Amino acid sequence: MAGLVTKETDRSVDKFIQNIESASKQADSYQLLALIQEVTGLTPKVWGNDQVADFLIGFGNYRYQRKQGKEFYEWFHVGFAARKSKMTLYLNYDVSQEEELLQQLGRCKWGRGCLYLGSFKNLDMEVLRKLIEKCDIPDGNS
After folding, report:
1. What was the pLDDT predicted at 104?
2. Secondary structure of residue 80 in the 3-state scheme
3. Which portions of the chain are predicted below pLDDT 70?
4. Which structural domain, as residue segments, surrounds residue 128?
5. Torsions phi, psi of 103, nearest 5?
6. Please, is 101 exposed, middle or buried when counting C-beta atoms within 10 Å of its C-beta (0-12, 13-18, 19+)?
7. What is the pLDDT of residue 37?
8. Which long-range contacts (CB under 8 A, 24 or more apart) does 113-119 make?
């Protein structure tokens, strides 16, 4: 196994967001950026891979080992990507277990560790804050 291709980079978070084509996705990105920083206290970093031109913003990092794997990987605690149709919010827990909060959040879809967010006008941002607060972030992690 070659390992993960998505890695923390030194790219500018602000320049990354400014290069998002959709003005509404830029605004949503800045809103998520501020919310996640406020909740976690972590520094945002651009994560990605130049070879596949797929980048996202991640907060903090930790090492983990896949089940039955011999390699360790680095990943972020919480992050997001401005995809063409939706914003994808990555959380480091099984968000599908939070059915009550998900029902209160507003129009969205979810997977095990992701929320697929449409228009932020249709979301309850306080509920989104509560979901982000549930991320497991150890003290002293950057």
Report:
1. 96
2. strand
3. 1-5, 50-53, 64-73, 140-142
4. 7-133
5. -70, -30
6. middle
7. 96
8. 114/88, 114/89, 114/90, 115/88, 115/89, 115/91, 116/86, 116/87, 116/88, 117/28, 117/86, 117/87, 117/88, 117/89, 118/86, 118/87, 119/24
- State whether residue 27 is helix, strand or coil: helix
* Token pair listed for 137: 């972030």
CA distance 52 to 33: 23
Q: What is the CATH classification number for the domain harbouring 38?
A: 3.90.1150.200
Tell me how long the chain is: 142
Degrees to nearest 5, angle at CA 55 with 57 and 61: 45
In whole angstroms, what is the distance from residue 106 CA to residue 50 CA?
A: 34
Task: Give this prediction's pTM.
Answer: 0.86
- The DSSP call for residue 97 is G
Cα–Cα distance measured from residue 32 to residue 6, given in angstroms and rounded to the nearest whole number? 20
DSSP secondary structure string, 124-137? Answer: -HHHHHHHHHTS--
Total domains in the fold of the chain: 1
Residues near 125 by Cβ (< 8 Å), separated by ≥ 6? 31, 35
Domain annotation covers residue 142: no
